[in-house]
Amino acid sequence: MINRMLQGGAVAALAAVVLLWAACEVEREIPEHDPAVVPPPGAEVVLPDTTPEGLWRYLEEIDYADSWSHWPRLPEFYPGTEPHGQLLRTYANGIAMPHIEAGLTGDLPHSSMIVKENYTEGRELDSYSVMWRIEEYNPEHRDWLFAKYGPDGVAEEFGRVESCQECHAGAETGYIHTRAPR
Ligand code: HEC
Question: Is the beta carbon of 80 within 6 A of some atom in ligand 1?
Answer without folding.
Answer: yes
